[in-house]
Amino acid sequence: MQNSLDLPGRPQDTRVVVAMSGGVDSSVVAGLLKREGYDVVGVTLQLYDHGEAEHRPGACCAGQDIYDARRVAETLGIPHYVLDYERRFREAVIDAFADSYLAGETPIPCVGCNQQIKFHDLLDTARDLGAQALATGHYIASRALPGGRRALYRARDEERDQSYFLFATTQDQIDFLRFPLGDMPKWRTREIARDLGLTVADKADSQDICFVPTGRYTQIIERLRPGAIEPGEIVHLDGRVLGRHDGIVHFTIGQRRGIGVAIGEPLYVIDLDAKTRRVLVGPREALETRRVALRQVNWLGDMPLGEGSHEVFAKVRSTRPPQPARLVVTEGGVEVDLLAGEYGVSPGQACVFYESCEPQSRVLGGGWIAAARPAVALADAIGQARRIPRAAAAGSA
């Protein structure tokens, strides 16, 4: 007999660890499983020194969140544990975040947190506690495949779908994980929270990076890497030096506002060169990308990812629907042709593969963007702008 989590046995004989962040989503997961009779254990991770952070609506994992998770567990009558993962979180997520920005990338720390902490360390803890599954409040669906393995699918509520942030989940992790909210709209989640009498029913959703509660991520980088943020030049693709900046970490590819220079026409950040500390700017059309090179690709398809060309649908940002793409695998690595093109693609972001563009389509994996390949003429212009000697450039300003 299979229960509602596709596990053998009765719910009361099945232990499930729920990752409780203190928000409404994970709280409802714990409440639903408890109501069904499962042996539920709540676990909250203390990921950073919340005593030094300014808690405010939209910031997760702060001190108030731990308190909220504890109150929910008391209301539901389930055991609840707070685990100190601060050191591990700093090493695996925060340090990598700082180094990525200093390298001219735009990182997504939530993916690293899921990959390195929640679905690795916490999953091991769940097994140590004798659990048959680890459940979370993510909006992504997990379904059984013929043969006993499981697969990931986009959430029914497309506005809440979090599959983009979970591309690095391995097959073994998928088999152990459960996502009870994957087929549920957000309004229904809050409705259930009210029915269960949970105080977090109307709590604001988390939107900020948890360890940057003020939104000033450069302060985090300066504290972790003192002296590493260095000034440099703002250079137009045509070679003109337009001004100076206080550090490439203050910019992201595709940025238009706050660049600090004006020439009478819209300017966008086209490229960030960490080696020369240059911010390259130009017109919007220079942002178009047709091919991206990937690193650390995680493939979740049924068949091994062999050399050759594979038709997929891809997302290079979380807010975009999957677009037609071609996955090209060679001895030299993996690249993705974005058939319709994308604007403002940045190294450090993710490219996630799907089986189709239809709602609730299957997740086929993804990889980290190592480089965005512009058109040939644009690549030449970027290369030229990067090679302008700094002394000569300064004299032409």
Mind explaining what this structure looks like?
With 397 residues, the chain is α/β, with parallel strands linked by helices. The protein folds into three domains: 13-195, Rossmann fold (3-Layer(aba) Sandwich), CATH 3.40.50.620; 229-286 and 387-396, SH3 type barrels (Roll), CATH 2.30.30.280; 287-378, Translation factors (Elongation Factor Tu (Ef-tu), domain 3, Beta Barrel). It is built from nine helices and 17 strands. The strands form four sheets. Strands 12-15-14-13-16-17 form a six-stranded antiparallel beta barrel. β10 (268-273) and β11 form a beta hairpin. α1 crosses α6 and α3 (86-102) runs antiparallel to α4. The longest helix has 20 residues, at 109-128. It is globular. Residues 50-59 and 391-397 have low confidence and may be disordered.
User: Termini separation (Å)?
Assistant: 75 Å
CATH-assigned homologous superfamily of the largest domain: HUPs
Specify the CATH architecture of the largest domain.
3-Layer(aba) Sandwich
SSE order, one letter for each helix or strand? EHEHEHHEEEHEHHEEEEEEEEEEHH
Over the alpha carbons, how many angstroms does the gyration radius reach?
A: 23 Å
Q: How many helices in DSSP terms? A: 9
Number of DSSP strands? 17
Could you say which overall geometry the principal axes of the C-alpha atoms support?
globular
Strand order of the largest sheet: 12-15-14-13-16-17
Would you identify the regions where 5 or more consecutive residues have pLDDT less than 50? 50-59, 391-397
Mean pLDDT: 90
Q: If you consult CATH, what is the topology of the largest domain?
A: Rossmann fold
Q: How many domains, in number, for the residues?
A: 3
- Which CATH C-level class of the largest domain is it? Alpha Beta
Task: Label the structural class.
Answer: alpha/beta
Describe the sheet with the most strands. Answer: 6 strands, antiparallel, barrel
Kindly estimate the percentage of residues that lie in beta strands according to DSSP: 25-35%
